[in-house]
Design goal:
321 residues; ten-stranded mixed sheet; globular
Length: 321
């Protein structure tokens, strides 16, 4: 297994490529292709594990697991290549073990990670009217220690609700100063632009390239100031309107941006979404999220590592939720 010491002080979190296998925890909702539903309104538990009972086709959660990230092509691919039906046999016993990923692609090391929603969108306004709940530092530190016991990375995710990335990111910087802590953004619960004033979860939210660029710029400055290896910035997306102008996202060698194909549903829907929202609008790296329970609601078994790695470009960041 690829250990953290393999890239301390070097620009090699995702390059040369390695798989980041992530487990996530935290509440989320909203189904792709289904009527909007109210977002999870219960606070994240002290254990940092999300409530995953809310529907969200091709969607996500709070503390999560991540897997692997590979570079996206510089120019859009014509389509996401799918495995021929006869090439892969999925069963209900397919595992998320590192061995499965290493067997599927022996040339790419696998790094474990936990993904915690550190700012959780809420269905109620709260005292400040921001429709988001900030996880306490004590919880973030606890999940970080869990990651440490497994030689894993930690991703801190932000769901802004009626707040903003500019308001929420600064309070997490003292954690992001650590070389093994990275950042995620969840446009689904950003109720701004054409969603201004709506409750999180009633409509799918929007972040613009300016929001992503602010986060990237802040991380880049942190990397330079603290002499850190590059930061990974994960942006979850399963509709075009979630990030409508991805080609205006600026790249910086100090930050490695992953556009993560979010959302749950049957394999054909997830593959089509990857093609339409990640391959069609490449930024830098691509990711793919697998929902252990919701993806199986259609009766189809979970997509296997070998099946997923037939995609072009191959995702390097894999998140289980």
């Amino acid at each position: 297994m690829f250990r953290l010491t393999g890239f301390q002080g070097a620009a090699r979190v995702l390059a040369p490529p390695l798989f980041i296998l992530v487990l996530g925890c935290g509440p989320e909702s909203v189904s792709k292709g289904a009527p909007p539903v109210t977002t999870a309104s219960t606070p994240q538990s002290a254990a940092g594990v999300k409530d995953s009972t809310h529907p969200k086709a091709a969607s996500d959660s709070g503390a999560r697991d991540s897997a692997v990230v590979r570079p996206a092509p510089a120019t859009p691919a014509a389509h996401a290549a799918l495995p021929p039906p006869s090439a892969v046999r999925r069963t209900s016993h397919d595992s998320i073990s590192y061995t499965r990923w290493e067997d599927a692609d022996p040339s790419t090391p696998t790094v474990p990670a936990l993904h915690l929603i550190a700012v959780v969108a809420q269905g109620s306004p709260g005292k400040d009217g921001m429709y988001r709940l900030r996880m306490p530092d004590t919880l973030i530190e606890r999940v970080y220690q869990w990651a440490q016991t497994r030689h894993a990375l930690l991703f801190l995710d932000i769901q802004v609700g009626h707040s903003t990335v500019r308001a929420e990111l600064p309070r997490l910087l003292h954690f992001l100063e650590r070389p093994d802590v990275h950042l995620g953004l969840d446009p689904e619960f950003s109720m701004h632009y054409d969603k201004e004033g709506l409750k999180p979860g009633t409509k799918i939210g929007t972040m613009m390239a300016d929001d992503v660029n602010y986060a990237s710029r802040t991380l880049a400055e942190l990397v330079s100031e603290k002499h850190l290896p590059p930061k990974v910035l994960v942006v979850h997306r399963f509709t075009k309107r979630m990030v409508p102008n991805p080609r205006q996202i600026h790249l910086d060698p100090r930050v490695q941006i992953v556009m993560d194909m979010d959302g749950w549903g049957p394999p054909w829907l997830k593959f089509d979404s990857y093609r339409d929202y990640e391959v069609a609008d490449p930024v830098q790296f691509t990711g793919f999220k697998l929902f252990l329970h919701n993806d199986a609601k259609s009766g189809e078994p979970l997509i296997t590592p070998r099946e997923l790695l037939h995609l072009v470009p191959k995702p390097l960041y894999i998140q289980y939720q």
